[in-house]
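Moderator note: this is an archived Q&A kept for reference. The question asked for a predicted structure of one protein chain; the sequence and the answer are reproduced below.
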Amino acid sequence: MGCSSASKDRAAGTTLSVYMSLPHEGVSARTAGDVAAGARLALADASAHAGGKHVRLVQLDSSKPGAVTWDPSLVEKNAKQAVDDPTAIAYIGELDSGASAISVPVTNDRQILQVSPDDGLTSLTRDEPGAALLTGPARYYPSGKRTFLRLVPTDYAQAATLVGWARARGAKRIALVQDERLFGRALAEQARFAALRLHVLATDGAEAHDDPTTYPALAEKLAQQRPDAVIYTGLGDSHSGALLAAIRRELPGVPLYGGSALATASPPPAALPPIAVVKPALALSAYGPRARRLVARIARERGGPVGPEALYGYEAMRIVLEAIAEARPDAGDRAAVARAALTPRTRESVLGRYRISAAGDVSTTRFGGYRRTGARLAWEGVRAVPGAAMTRP
């Protein structure tokens, strides 16, 4: 169903639709389930109403059956389904880094608010440190106005946090290992730039392919560079365990670090050696009483454990509902809803206190630090972005 010119900037009718695009398959599926549960609870807590309108949630799958991660064609399809719905007012997604680069231009063209619970792709909101000109945010916003908001720090902040953690533990030389996916490559490049800012030497590093027979040679090459730490920036897929195990054998005393994609991967990669990891979500104990009660409610309803990522789904939906209410009496005005969500302000939320910027970023500059041993994440405290890495050149 195509949109007429009259419906391009307005959601029609007394019912508004919020679309949510998350992967139901792959290493992020469990996290996606937690995020979705949080969003559903927020909508239920509001009795499915905002701004005098009934609000419905439409959940879409951004992955193919048996896939490891999100699929670009499905992300685009999901975004187009949303903009083709005359009742659509907002879009919650994407979950994994880089996926929003596909959906944001589609939703922005119709000025539909998009809130991402966990996509840190730096260039969505600001120029990527060290990247070429003309690769920044403008290309994602054909309407000329910002309509995208994320709830996590940028991937550059994550990369700097990983380098800073390794440096704080005495590393002066780090080796970067990436996979072939956008997230791994981008995070590795940003870690290299952060290392420059933090006066840590980043060696040549390596890119791992989906061929475990090549991992011993890759690990041997890394060992020849004599790093004090190895940072892996790729996914926690079925090959990453074998890759990191090979590196551990060649570098038995060298600390291993991993990014959020490895921290949240479920099921855990087989043969994964113990590794320090970061992710935006803290341990549940680090949040306030309201957040802990909320996660407990979801766990009771689902009959099983729920991760703190559910809080990000809850907050994403709260932002949408409050923006709709703020746009009242014209809650169906898509541009007005997007403007309301991106109006700079400080929010008191289940995630704690943070500030929203007009660019679509949040003021949060901390990550949860963990030690991953198999499926177990042992909390090691908050890891902050080193100030020196964030200073503009």
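Archived answer notes: The first helix runs from residue 29 to 45.
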